Sequence to fold (676 residues):
Amino acid sequence: MMAALAFAWRSLVRQPARATLGILGVAAVGALLLDMLLLSQGLVTSMQDLLDSTGFDIRVAATDPIPGEPDIADGATAAAQIAELPSVRAAIAVRTEDADVQVGTAKPTRATFVGVSGGRARPWTVLRGADIAGEHEIVVNQYAADAIGVAPGATVSLKAYCFGGAGVAPAVPFRVAGIAEFPFDAPDQSGVGTTGASLADACGTPEARTADLIMVTSAGDADAAASAIAERRPDLRAFTNSQAVGQMQQRGFTYFRQISTVLTTITVSFALLLITVLLTVSVNQRLGEVAALRALGFSRRRVVLDVLFESALIVGIGGLLSLPLGAALAIWLDAILKRMPNLPAALHFFVFDPQALWVHGGLLAATAVIAALYPMHIVARLPIAATLRDEVTG
Amino acid sequence: MRITVFALALTGAICASLAAQESTIPSILISRQLAELEHIAVGDQVQWATGGKGDDARACRVAGIYEPTPDPMRLGAVPREVRLHLTDLLELTRDDATPAGTEHVESINVALTDPDDARKFAADVNARIPGVFARRAIGAAGAGTTFVVLERFHFAIAAVTIVAATVFLLALSIMLVDERRATVGVLRLIGLPARRILVQVLLEGVLIAGAGALFGLLLAFASEGLINRFFQWRYDTALIFVKVTPSLAAICLAIAVPLGAVATVAASWALLRRGGLRLARR
Fold:
């Protein structure tokens, strides 16, 4: 076996240009294949990670896990009812609107305006300064802070544009308590967070208690907590993070799964075809040599194994090279796709998954074997005497 | 180009016009997928309500069935949609505390007499109507939108595929040229200059690359309909998945033919630099 491998290696080394190009071709195709495999589940994995990173494992909405219409009419009350459940550790009601934030008469920035009511948990992480402690305090994300030039302690004027709010909401002064990171913000999106009451006040409807969704942290068993919530509030729908991702997968993520499947199929077929052609032409050029080896006593199995190992070496070395190449390509492609509007900065299309690596290896191994079948057949059926005679007379 | 201005306000609605209804029973349009799913036909009278229990159910008549605008980002989701007059929607969704005519709408599309005024008009609306955000519709379809990004992504994938194909092509060319080493050696020995052989190789490369590119285009044209029909059936959509346009075909030819020719010449170059005797030697 080792002798056959060594012989195949020598066959490759003897033709360095064609061997190098074959390996580079496999590396390029393998890199694309790896990326398509990463893409097939990348967005789902990334979204799951993003949802889990917020510390909330259940989302409660009026109809749908993606915040939208209709609102939960009694958001704060519903959050309080849910928080009382034994299977729930914390629950907060979240309302999201738009707002213009400005300092004095300077140019405003249009921001996503998040209001939170209920427990002490917050759907943001404070980076500098302090969290909101009272009414008419806000945290802003770094993009908003840079856009309007504020730091913790500054006072800004905020004009909200709210669903169901007053027709002309007043500009309300807010104190910037800190700079925070909002997990679902796009890189070029201003974000502002405050209490639900302050947001309602800014909307000009201080009595409003609506919420887009309620974010819940379970006591440990998310499924049990979701069932308990559904029982307590049958008018609302509770989704665990996995269920929410499943719903999104059905709607928005299908495109990338499909393109990944199509390109994986094309890539593997492409690699298969080209390696078959490379090996077949290579074997055809060495028919005389193979016949001579057979005449010298090399068994049929041995010369067939030589071809198989040659294929395995080309695909194996190319496959190994494809890993770093694929990683670099994934970074580039991810950067392209992340230019989509309103995409959270923490969301990625290509996420490393050990399973994808196994599938990548399996597909390349299958390619190596299948691509070698025809050249192996040629070598196995080679008539020794006739080939040698042709070689001499030709 | 017709330019509209979006005025985004505060609540949602899905409707097409503000025309008043003369009939007592509102008329609606339903998506083809919903009609097939629920076995609804034009002229049927259906009940619709805002809640699952149907407490506020009202009757309406199906005036027509429409094909929803395909959305690639919602591939696989069956569009169960209804379109109705805004007045009918507001009538159904308005709460008791909201007087008729004071409801919120999500957006207003405006067609200007002079489309060039769009920017000025949007600025004017923003200044005059607080609480409303107006912008040019053309801005919403600018360089940063989803489809432009997807196009760039596809272009990047195509670039990687071309690189891989070029490498393989070079490998194949080297093997084929190597196979003709003796023939080239004899040609050199009988007096043909290297330049003459190179031109012949170049022409051969152009012919083979041209034939290959044409075959590829024919394959693309032939499979276009099949691919579209399969995926339209698979996802129950009118979306066109593959479209081979003349410009796309021209780009493919412009890339494939020179690439094939250059690969052949590059592979032959090293061979032609050797002497005729060395090439002819077996």
About this structure: The two ends of chain B are 70 Å apart (CA to CA). Chain B touches chain A through 37 residues (CB under 8 Å). Chain B is about 50% helix and 10% strand. The longest helix of chain B spans residues 194-235.
